[in-house]
Amino acid sequence: MTSPLLDLQTLPRFDAITPEEVGPAIRSLLDEGRARIARQTQDDVPATWDAFVAPLIDTGERLSRAWGIVSHLHGVLDVPPWREAYNAILPEVTRYYSELGQNLALFARYKALRDSADYASLSPVRQRIVDNEIRDFRLSGAELPEAQKPRFQAIQEELAALGAKFSENVLDATNAYTEHVTDEAVLAGLPADAVAAARAEADAAGKPGWLFTLRMPSYLPVMQYAENRALRARLYRASATRASEFSAEQGHPEWDNAPVIARIVALRQELAAMLGYANYAEVSLVPKMAESPAQVIAFLRELGAKARPFAERDMAELREFAATALGLATLEAWDIGFASEKLRQARYSYSDQEVKQYFPEPRVLAGLFGVVERLYGVRIREDEAPAWDADVRFFRIEREGAAGAELIGQFYLDLHARATKRGGAWMDSAVSRRQTAHGVQTPVAYLVCNFPGPVGGKPATFTHDDVQTLFHEAGHGLHHLLTRIDELWVSGISGVEWDAVELPSQFMENFCWEWDVIASMSAHVETGEPLPRALFDKMLAARNFQSGMQTMRQLEFALFDLRLHGDWPFDATAGVQPLLDEVRREVAVNIPPAWNRFANSFSHIFAGGYAAGYYSYKWAEVLSADAFAAFEESRPAGGSVFDSGTGARFLAEILSVGGSRPALESFRAFRGREPQVDALLRHSGMVENA
Fold first, then answer.
1. β-strands 404-416, 426-431: how paired?
2. Helix, strand, or coil (residue 401)
3. 238: which of 11, 192, 597, 639 lies 20 to 30 Å off by Cα?
4. Would 281-348+544-690 and 361-523 be classified into the same CATH topology?
């Protein structure tokens, strides 16, 4: 069939693709894939790379790219026609990949290739691909008895549908709640841009006054600055009970994710048992750096032991300040953000809102691109391509070569929050680098955030946290875009162990704390003046403000995730709340209200790729902090952290190699030794007298 969705010789044709063509187009690719598999398992096809593997890669890429476009639109344009088109074809796509993973004929060919003389002649990169495929066949149930395979496939199909349902419930519950304010006195303490955005939201809804939502650019300023405690409490409760049994109060009991979670956990456990593992955490760790759930739990608890004294001190100081300076005898969950901001202002004499005025979007982007260009010797230029929203921008990355500017990669940038976009921030692949008969196929990435947009004719302004988020996602993007590996399944982020994939992203965040970077990327939205050095010094002094509390919060998420998928005896009747309560008693320094239903919107582990893998953030943070320490060590006294030699080595040993070798080998090649936790503790201020 002819469809813009099937035109994969160009960039995605977002201006022409429609929901109606998704089903027919994807089905044609599924048919094409099945025909290719049938052909590759014929007796006359030898088990060699060129005859057997290469054609499978070619056909598989067509489906993965087209389905990637549909999946991307489900995340950034979640309107009813696209949601329906995505959900209608999702079971068929899941079934196809399940059948592929359980195809014994394909599995046998890969094993025959590995055991042949041809394997020894393959490059190490291609050998790794073959090894990964054999591992993944086993994890996909290829070695199960034939009688069990239909059940295994059914589990995978249902899990895919449940993940989509979980995400949609969170989005729908988020969008359904609004807080309509008509009394201007209720707005006391809120920044002018947050008030203007709420006015614009009300105008768009045809209402007087101001309208606040649970989307982060609206929600966070209320929790951080609103002096009206009742307003904070209402929004906090609405956010903390999203997609839970409390959705029935909104007339939507079908949004409750509790039964979705129960079914997901049960199915993952059943899948693990079928594969011969004690629990799903063991399955999840097979392709990761970590060796066992016990090792990860020991790592998390060791880090928790180091962080707890700092977290307890943070909370004690906050409670004392709230009581003495704010008159809050009892510090409730909806007071923490507000009281923390007040304490930060009192201690360091600045506010996040003051800093935000110095980070208008155009200046921040120019600063980010400048960092990338200095580090890696490339140029970033605006480009043109059809997109899914008028707000989306498109860029190209070039390197100067012998014949002039050489295209390295391209990326879409979708920065602002919308009602049709799922929350959070992420990078995803649109096109991956590979060598083709026509030359090198350059990679393309999606970079997506949920920042506030422009208001009142002024450019959008970002908090310093927003700036760090942007640098974080750019780090993921660079990992994908700057690869020099030409084999599709291990180029860029493909094939990288999940608990190492955050290394380049967290590494990039460190540059947001370098004065020469901040000086070049800040300009007051009204005056154009750069961020004063005195204000930056205050930010530096406050860099580790409440870092103990923040660390323990991340450990809470990671332990809950790992234990839920590991050693905890799940009871569908009780749900996951008893486990979360147990974990909080172990690591939390502030216990949320009993009605808090955080798990019901924990999309990372129930609708994303982080099941039994949320620990990756802290695991990879050890690697990223240690990697950045190499730049700090090469910094001349009083000089810049931008050392071209260190940047070139990071590019060569970490970013460029993608998943072509184990992540630990890449780290050792860059650092010359095993990773050490010291830099992370130092950067987080969790060393005595820090």
1. unpaired
2. strand
3. 192
4. yes
Both tokens of 112, joined, read 């025959």
- Token readout for 546 is 């409440």
Question: Could you give the 3-state DSSP secondary structure of residue 98?
Answer: helix
Fold adopted by 281-348+544-690: Neurolysin; domain 3 (1.10.1370)
State the architecture of 361-523 in CATH terms. Orthogonal Bundle (1.10)
Q: Indicate the SS3 state at residue 279.
A: coil
Name the residue with tokens 């071209």: 644
Q: Confirm if 52 and 67 have CB atoms less than 8 A apart.
A: no
CA nearest neighbour of 171 among 460, 466, 421: 421
Per-residue pLDDT averaged across 489-499, rounded? Answer: 96
Q: If residue 447 lies in a helix (H) or strand (E), which one and from where to where? A: strand 444-451
Q: How far is CA 690 from the centre of its chain?
A: 30
> What six digits make up the tokens of 169?
């419930």
Distance between CA atoms of residues 634 and 628, nearest Å? 10
Cα separation, 50 vs 82, whole angstroms? 38
Chain mean position to CA 369: 20
Under the banding of pLDDT at 50, 70 and 90, the label for residue 404 is: confident
Task: Tell me which residue has tokens 């989306």.
Answer: 392
Tell how strand 434-436 and strand 439-441 pair up.
Answer: antiparallel
Pairing of strands 404-416, 444-451: parallel
How far apart are alpha carbons 129 and 134 in whole angstroms? Answer: 9
For position 1, what pLDDT does the model report?
66
As given in the structure block, the two tokens for residue 417 are: 């929050």
Whole-number percent of the chain with pLDDT over 90: 93
Q: Domain ranges for the chain, please list them.
A: 4-143, 177-255, 281-348+544-690, 361-523
Reported as a single tens digit per residue, the pLDDT across 132-155 is: 999 999 999 999 999 999 999 999
Taking each helix axis as running N to C, give the angle between helix 124-139 and helix 80-101, from 0 to 180 degrees, rounded to the nearest 10. 100
d(CA 346, CA 84): 51
* Displacement of CA 50 from its chain's centroid (Å): 35
Phi, psi of 412 (to 5 degrees): -90, 145
- The total of other beta-carbon atoms located within 10 Å of residue 295's CB is 12
Note the pLDDT tens digit of each residue in 150-175.
999 999 999 999 999 999 999 999 99
Radius of gyration of the chain (CA): 25
* CATH code linked to domain 4-143: 1.20.1050.40
Q: Per the structure block, which two tokens stand in for 680?
A: 């992370």
DSSP string, 457-478: TBPPB--HHHHHHHHHHHHHHH
**Cα dihedral sign for 491, 497, 499, 503?**
negative
pLDDT of 254-312, one tens digit each? 999 999 999 999 999 999 999 999 999 999 999 999 999 999 999 999 999 999 999 99
Is 168 one of the catalytic residues? no
Question: Could you report how far apart the first and last alpha carbons of the chain are, in Å?
Answer: 64
CA distances from 360 to 224, 263, 382, 583, 676 (A): 20, 44, 18, 40, 37
> Which residue in 61, 133, 201, 473 is the catalytic one?
473
Which of 65, 61, 60, 45 lies closest to 110, judged by CA?
A: 45
Tell me, what's the pLDDT at 453? 95
Residues 45 and 51: their CA atoms lie apart, in Å, by: 6
In the block, residue with structure tokens 């949601």: 83
Q: Which residues pair with 412 in a beta bridge?
A: 394, 446
CB 210 within 8 A of CB 181: yes
Beta carbons of 72 and 141 less than 8 angstroms apart: no
400: three-class secondary structure by DSSP: strand
Half-sphere exposure of 264 (CA within 13 A, CB side): 29
Mean pLDDT across the chain: 96
Count the residues in the chain: 690
